[in-house]
From TrEMBL:
Its main location: membrane. This is ABC transporter ATP-binding protein. Gene3D superfamilies: ABC transporter type 1, transmembrane domain, P-loop containing nucleotide triphosphate hydrolases. Pfam families: ABC_membrane, ABC_tran.
Length: 585
C-alpha cells in the first residue's frame, strides 16, 4: 500500500471531521486575504491614490474584526484538529495492539518490548502529524492561489519574482527528502535500540549483577547512545539545513521585491497600497513555502513510520492497520464475551494428527506428532531436555503457529487453536509463569468472577495453602515485580492455582518439577484427581509420581514420538523411557 493510500484510508475513518477541519484551516489560511486588501485600501486612502470611501477608523475596525474572526476560527480549527488526530492515532494503535494480542505468544512482536513501545508512540505520532498537516497544505495552497491571482492583476512580473523562490525551494526539498528519509530511519532505529537496551537492563538487573557484567552492559549502552547521537545529529542537521534554505530563499525573494517595488513606485505605476499588499501577502507566502516544505518532509517521514508499523504485523496484510472499528470514546467498552462452563461443547475427545512446528531460528521443534486425549484421561509427555515437550503443548494450544497437522475437538477441526483453547475449554500452567504486581488473589483470578469457595479449592489443589499462611496479608498480599517476591516454586504453584480455578475441560501442565518436592507433587496429583470432574490432563513431566499415574505416556525424542503406552509396557521396551526413569532414581 502506498503511503498516500495508507493515509487516505486512515483519514476515511472520520471523513466528516477531516473535511470540517480542512474547511476551518482553509478559512484560517484564506483569512489574511481580507486584511491585506483593507491595508491596501488604507494606504491608498492615506496617499490619496484612492477615493475616500471609508473613514480611517472604519478601516481599523475592519482590521480588528478580521483579526478577531481569525482568532475564533483558529480556536475552532484546533478543536477539530485535536478531535480528528486523536481518533486516527487511537484507531492505528488499537488495530496494532489487537493484531499483536491475536498473534500466537511466540510471534507476538518481532522486536523488543522497548522498541515496540517506541513504535507505538513515535511512529503513530508521525502518521497523525502528517495527516493533520495535510489540511494546512490545502489551506495554504488556496491562499497561494487567491493571492497570486490578486497580485498578478496588480503586477505580474513582480508576482513571478515572489513565487520563483518557491519553485527553487520545492525542488531542493524534493531532491533531499530521500536522504532525509534515510537519516530519519537510522535515528529512529538508534532510538529504539537505546530504549530496548534500557528495558532489557531493567528486566535483567539480577542476572547482570550475578554475572558481574555491569561495566560491559554500561559500555554497550554507551556505544548505543553514541550511535544514536550520531544518527540524531545527521537527521536534525539535515532537517535544520532544509529549514534554513526554505526561509533564506524567501528572504532573498523579499529583497528583490522591495528593490523592484521602489523603482516602480518612483515611476508612478505602483501605489503605496499595492506595495503594502505585496509586503503583507509576502509574509504569508513565506509561511506557505516553509510549511509546504515541512508537510512534504512529514509525508516522507511517515513512509518510514508506516514501514516500521507494518513490520510489527509480521507479514499480515497492511490493510489491518487502517481497518475501521469503534473506539468507544464516549460509551463504555462492551464486556468481553467469554463462554461460561457449560456453554461450550463438552469435551469427549481431542485428536491431533501430524502436528508440526519448527522454530525458524533453529530448525528444531516437533514433527508429525499424533495425540489422543479422551475425556478424563491423564497423558504424560516425557523426553529429554530439548526433545520438544514444551513445543508440543504450545503448538497444541495455539501459542505457536502450527505449520502442519490438524487438531480436532469432538471430531470437529479447530480452525484457530489460539482463540479456541482458552477457558473454559482449556487452561495451562506454563513452565515459566508470569506474575503481575497485584494481590495473590488477583494474580490467580485475573479478573475471573469465581467466588471465595472456588478460589479456596483451586489454592488447595495447587498445594498453595502452606505458602498462604506465611504471606503477611494472605491472599491480599501484593506479589510480583513490585511486591513480595515469590520463589520459583511458589510462582509455579500460583500459576497452577490460576489454571485450577478456571475449571477447564482440558488442563495442560508444563513441568511442575521445580515447584514441588516429591511429597507435595503426590498431593497435587491426588487433589487434581478428586477435583477435575472428568477433565483431560496433558502433563509434561519426567517425574515418577506423574509417569506412574499416566493412562498413557508419550515419549518424545528429537521432536518425534519415540513410543507411546503405559508405564509398565514402556519400561519393558523403550530405552529412552528407561533411561529417564532410572536417572530419576
Ligand atoms: N524460541 C526458540 N527458537 C529456536 N529454537 C527453539 C526455541 N525454543 C526451543 N527451541 C528448540 O526446539 C527444541 C525443542 O525445545 P522444547 O523447549 O520444546 O524442548 P523441551 O523438551 O520442552 O525441553 P525442556 O525439557 O528443557 O523444557 C530444542 O532443541 C530447542 O533448542
Amino acid at each position: 500500500m502506498s503511503t498516500f493510500s495508507f493515509l487516505t484510508k486512515l483519514t476515511g475513518y472520520r471523513w466528516g471531521l477531516y473535511i470540517l477541519n480542512a474547511l476551518a484551516w482553509s478559512l484560517i489560511y484564506l483569512a489574511p486575504i481580507v486584511p491585506g486588501l483593507v491595508t491596501k485600501q488604507f494606504f491608498d486612502v492615506l496617499s490619496g491614490s484612492a477615493p475616500y470611501r471609508f473613514g480611517v477608523w472604519s478601516l481599523i475596525g475592519f482590521l480588528m474584526l478580521a483579526a478577531l474572526a481569525r482568532v475564533v476560527l483558529i480556536l475552532f480549527g484546533f478543536i477539530t484538529d485535536v478531535q480528528f488526530r486523536f481518533r486516527i492515532g487511537a484507531l492505528l494503535r488499537r488495530n496494532l495492539l489487537r493484531h499483536v494480542l491475536k498473534e500466537p505468544g511466540a510471534r507476538a512482536i518481532p522486536i523488543s518490548p522497548g522498541e515496540a513501545i517506541s513504535s507505538f508512540r513515535d511512529d503513530v505520532d508521525q502518521v497523525e502529524e502528517t495527516v493533520s498537516w495535510s489540511v494546512d497544505a490545502f489551506g495554504m495552497t488556496f491562499f497561494a492561489a487567491v493571492s497570486i491571482f490578486i497580485l498578478m492583476r496588480i503586477n505580474a512580473e513582480m508576482t513571478l519574482l515572489v513565487f520563483l523562490p518557491l519553485v527553487v525551494v520545492v525542488t531542493v526539498a524534493q531532491l533531499s527528502t530521500s536522504l532525509l528519509q534515510k537519516y530519519r530511519a537510522a535515528s529512529r532505529e538508534a532510538t529504539s535500540q537505546v530504549t530496548g537496551a534500557i528495558s532489557e537492563m531493567f528486566s535483567t538487573v539480577q542476572s547482570i549483577q550475578v554475572a558481574g557484567a555491569e561495566d560491559r552492559v554500561i559500555g554497550r549502552f554507551s556505544r548505543l547512545n553514541d550511535l544514536r547521537r550520531e544518527a540524531m545529529l545527521k537527521d536534525k542537521l539535515l532537517g535544520s539545513a532544509l529549514d534554513s534554505i526554505f526561509s533564506n530563499t524567501v528572504n532573498f525573494g523579499t529583497g528583490l521585491i522591495l528593490l523592484l517595488a521602489a523603482q516602480s513606485m518612483r515611476s508612478g505605476s505602483f501605489t503605496v497600497g499595492d506595495f503594502a499588499l505585496f509586503v503583507y501577502y509576502l509574509t504569508f507566502v513565506m509561511q506557505f513555502i516553509q510549511n509546504f516544505g515541512k508537510f512534504m518532509t512529514y509525508f516522507k517521514q511517515s513512509a518510514v513510520a508506516k514501514d516500521r508499523l507494518t513490520h510489527l504485523l509480521q507479514g499480515a496484510p497492511e490493510a489491518i492497520l487502517t481497518e475501521h472499528h469503534p473506539l468507544y470514546l464516549r460509551t463504555a467498552i462492551p464486556e468481553a464475551v467469554t463462554a461460561q462452563p457449560g456453554e461450550v461443547d463438552l469435551l469427549e475427545r481431542i485428536e491431533v494428527r501430524g502436528l508440526t512446528y519448527r522454530y525458524p531460528e533453529s530448525g528444531r521443534g516437533i514433527e508429525a506428532v499424533d495425540l489422543d486425549l479422551p475425556r478424563g484421561s491423564f497423558t504424560v509427555v516425557t523426553g529429554r531436555i530439548g526433545s520438544g515437550k514444551t513445543t508440543l503443548v504450545r503448538a497444541l494450544l495455539g501459542l505457536l503457529p502450527i505449520q502442519a497437522g490438524v487438531i480436532c475437538w469432538n471430531g470437529k477441526p479447530v480452525e484457530a487453536p489460539g482463540d479456541f483453547f482458552i477457558p473454559p475449554r482449556s487452561a495451562y500452567t506454563p513452565q515459566i509463569p508470569r506474575l503481575y504486581s497485584d494481590t495473590l488473589a488477583n494474580n490467580i483470578l485475573l479478573g475471573l468472577d469465581a467466588g471465595e469457595e472456588r478460589l479456596r479449592r483451586a489454592i488447595a489443589s495447587a498445594v498453595l495453602e502452606p505458602d498462604l499462611d506465611r504471606l503477611p496479608h494472605g491472599l491480599d498480599t501484593v506479589i510480583g515485580p513490585r511486591g513480595v517476591k515469590l520463589s520459583g516454586g511458589q510462582a509455579q504453584r500460583t500459576a497452577a492455582a490460576r489454571m485450577f480455578v478456571r475449571d477447564a475441560q482440558l488442563m495442560v501442565v508444563d513441568d511442575l518439577s521445580s515447584a514441588l518436592d516429591v511429597e507435595t507433587e503426590r498431593k497435587l496429583w491426588e487433589r487434581l484427581e478428586e477435583e477435575r470432574q472428568g477433565a483431560a490432563c496433558l502433563v509434561v513431566s519426567h517425574r515418577k509420581a506423574a509417569l506412574a499415574r499416566a493412562d498413557k505416556i508419550i515419549v518424545l525424542r528429537n521432536g518425534r514420538i519415540d513410543d507411546t503406552g503405559r508405564l509398565e509396557e514402556l519400561l519393558q521396551r523403550n530405552e529412552e523411557l528407561r533411561s529417564l526413569w532410572y536417572r530419576e532414581e
